[in-house]
């Protein structure tokens, strides 16, 4: 995406698309090199192999096909990362697959089991208060709980579907304030105004939004102004 290079100077961890919804050998290697040069932690970011919809359309695949897609994507990034001398620290599911795994333990279990043994000590970056957390912990993965800076939440703690108005947030100042509230109070405000408690220690900013770089800069500046340390939790 246009802002990728600039983002590597701001973020502490990068979830790299690995050939499913986006990405190829060139983009993976460039991202790995940028992360290595800046001390940014790297994670594998597999999604449905559905480039037309950027992995944001729900697909109901046979278990063996989903297993093959997830494992194949992660294995590709791991192979390139080994050649580039960059450790892959974590797994983070993308888009519709991530949301389905947040709702359905069986989907989460299939995805996380698919990468068993690929990387020693691999962590799972999981949507907080979702089936992803429960399943990853049950499978013995170290879990980092994640919240989203630029996405609206339902009162149940899951994300508002992108098909609904207001699902994606664009107000840079409001997003920065939201990040500080999350870090200080462990709270997120849902789309209906209700308050959600969260234990998230990682904050996602999507790189494909027009405001991605501005959001990342504002969030980092706001957190640092509050004396909050920013580092990759892996």
UniProtKB/TrEMBL annotation:
CDD domains: LamB_YcsF_like
Domain of life (superkingdom): Bacteria
Biological process annotations from GO: carbohydrate metabolic process
NCBIfam families (alphabetical): PRK05406.1-3 (NF003814)
Protein name: Lactam utilization protein LamB
Native species: Devosia insulae DS-56
